């Protein structure tokens, strides 16, 4: 596919599955811009009417499933990244070649059941509306390896640590620590996908040791960075 698909939207829900490679999906929803990094065996759920841009970061094989708005589960009106099970992967493959009819309906019903039960991973990096907080977030994104504390970042934007912590909760519904981890993952995943040594990725992500970085990565991704690199090199 093209390196980038320009901003667009659909009247239906779209599940975009990354079978191989690495993609970036940037969405504009609820007055926020959020960037998701989608590695192999993950899929991004994009509800109807949500403007989104898809960028291929590393040669990717993508598959999509279009879901009628009437089949969208209750409460699934926000974008999210799902872990694709082996069964879901095979169902997506089967839907690609299926023809309209009873079998196609059955495959879609099974796929939706797998989607509803899929694990969700926090791989989105939202940017806030508040100018002060946005300046802080953009500074972190420019220098994800910077080890500055929240209080130090707060000084840079002329606010108190308490004010910044409150802004993270009210603007982004998360803590600074959780947001920063998502930003680090968004920075680290493309580096790992390109085969950058884990020690270099850890240092560039602000970690003093490979083991600390690996522990964070495994907790967030369910696999070690070395296994992620292996899968990137061996995924079909």
How is this structure best described in words?
- The chain is of the alpha+beta class.
- It is built from nine helices and eight strands.
- The chain has helices spanning 86-97, 102-117, 131-142, 150-156, 161-172, 176-193, 198-204, 210-221, 225-234; strands at residues 4-8, 13-29, 32-38, 42-46, 51-67, 80-83, 120-121, 124-127.
- A hairpin with a 2-residue loop joins strand 2 (13-29) and strand 3.
- Helix 7 (198-204) crosses helix 8.
- The longest helix has 18 residues, at 176-193.
**Share of residues in strands:** 25-35%
**Arithmetic mean of pLDDT:** 91
Shape: globular
Query: How many individual helices?
Result: 9
CATH topology of the largest domain: Jelly Rolls
Rg estimate, integer Å: 19 Å
Q: How many domains would you count in the coordinates?
A: 2
Task: Report the structural category.
Answer: alpha+beta
CATH architectural group of the largest domain: Sandwich
Name of the CATH class of the largest domain? Mainly Beta
Q: Superfamily at the CATH H level of the largest domain?
A: Regulatory protein AraC
Sketch the major β-sheet.
8 strands, antiparallel
Distance between the termini: 16 Å
SSE sequence, one letter per element: EEEEEEHHEEHHHHHHH
Uncertain spans: none
* Proportion of residues in helical segments: 40-55%
Total beta strand runs: 8
């Amino acid at each position: 596919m093209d390196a980038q698909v320009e901003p667009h939207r659909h009247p239906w829900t779209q599940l975009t599955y990354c079978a191989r490679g690495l993609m970036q999906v940037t969405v504009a929803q609820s007055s926020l811009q959020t960037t998701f990094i989608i590695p192999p065996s993950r899929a991004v759920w994009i509800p109807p009417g949500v403007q989104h841009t898809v960028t291929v970061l590393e040669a990717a094989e993508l598959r999509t499933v279009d879901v009628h708005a009437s089949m969208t589960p209750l409460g699934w009106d926000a974008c999210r990244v799902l872990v694709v099970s082996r069964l879901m992967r095979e169902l997506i493959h089967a839907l690609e070649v299926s023809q309209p009819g009873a079998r196609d309906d059955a495959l879609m019903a099974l796929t939706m059941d797998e989607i509803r039960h899929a694990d969700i991973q926090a791989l989105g990096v939202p940017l806030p509306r508040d100018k002060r907080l946005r300046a802080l977030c953009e500074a972190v994104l420019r220098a994800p390896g910077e080890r500055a504390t929240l209080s130090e970042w707060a000084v840079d934007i002329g606010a108190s640590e308490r004010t910044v912590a409150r802004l993270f909760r009210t603007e982004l519904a998360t803590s600074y620590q959780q947001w920063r981890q998502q930003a680090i993952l968004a920075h680290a995943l493309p580096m790992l996908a390109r085969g950058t040594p884990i020690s270099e990725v850890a240092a560039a992500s602000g970690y003093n040791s490979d083991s600390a970085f690996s522990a964070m990565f495994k907790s967030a991704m369910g696999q070690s960075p070395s296994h992620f690199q292996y899968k990137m090199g061996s995924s079909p």
